[in-house]
Amino acid sequence: MNPDIPLQLLGGLTAREFLRDYWQKKPLLVRQAFTDFESPIDPDELAGLALEEEVESRIVLEHGERPWELRRGPFEEDTFATLPERDWTLLVQAVDQFVPEVAELLEHFRFLPSWRIDDVMISFAAPGGSVGPHFDNYDVFLLQGHGKRNWKVGQRCDSESPLIEHADLRILADFEQSDEWTLAPGDMLYLPPRLAHYGVAVDDCLTYSVGFRAPSAAEVLTHFTDFLSQFLPDEERYSDADAQPASDPHQIQHDALDRLKTLLAEHMGDERLLLTWFGQFMTEPRYPEQVTGETLAEQELLDSLERGAILVRNPSARLAWSEVDDNLLLFASGQSRLLSGHLRSLLQSICSADALHGENLAEWLEDEEAVTLVCQLVQQGSLGFADE
Ligand SMILES: [Mn+2]
Questions:
Q1: Distance, CA 57 to ligand 1 centroid (Å)?
Q2: Which of 45, 149, 240, 247 has the CA that lies 20 to 30 A from 274?
Q3: Are residues 44 and 156 in the same domain?
Q4: For residue 249, what pLDDT is reported?
Q5: Radius of gyration of the chain from Cα atoms?
Q6: Is residue 37 assigned to a domain?
């Protein structure tokens, strides 16, 4: 993808300009990011998804049993009939995993790494519906899908920003408005992390939120060190050969700290393990139970492909790849595989979610490593046969 081509999605900015001036920095309003946008899902279908066991959904009622009442799905069909006429919102997480047309919207965001994208959350709000003024720790693109929503943006926040007392929702106690826009279908608002925002439905409205993943520093440290420690034998310990005689036996001398720093640096600086951990971590599926494989022998795979079977990426799977010296690492839904460099274009087509079939796989079906890889991905559940 050429980063210097103006994109309608970004209001005519190029990907390079957007990343330089807006990404993680300041909001961007784009009128008609999508011309004549037609929401691929309607409010009834969204409500239908919220009935499903495997779908994560919430309803926020501003004037419920208590202010800003939060209810968690799955919901019963009659739930929606009992809701008031206004001031409530239904939020459904990861709709892209359940509705292919919603997943297709993500194709427009290919100027960002796919492993940074978390999910597409869709909310339906009755007039006046809102989840209150709040901030998120993630970047988000808010695409108006249907109806109108008014967005106010405010101050930069952090974990010290005062919140109202609420067991489940993080609603800001103060909101210092700096800008305000009303979005119509096809309009899109990009918000950087930690910027206060407050969206209120003008009429019945659907809003798509393309959300991103960014591990916290605390997560990086705890998860990476957990991962590292699997490779460290118990006998590798703090050691102080050639220590100097202690002048006071109760004092921790700074040479002890230096030894610790050396020990940490030696392991924390292992780039290969850092990459392996990071790729696995960033491709962990949101719903691992949706990534279940099937038993498949390599010969069965070859036979199926010959009969015209099509392999597609499991919409709940996450894939990424990287280079290590002359080899490649494929990350698939939290696992990694070291592969030889000649498989590069195969990894690229596997990751880009193209359909794989006898024709485009042809050159690979003679390659033992490639066949084993594709077979393993089906066994693991990242790839699956498309329904005929
Ligand atoms: Mn938000």
A1: 15
A2: 240
A3: yes
A4: 92
A5: 25
A6: yes
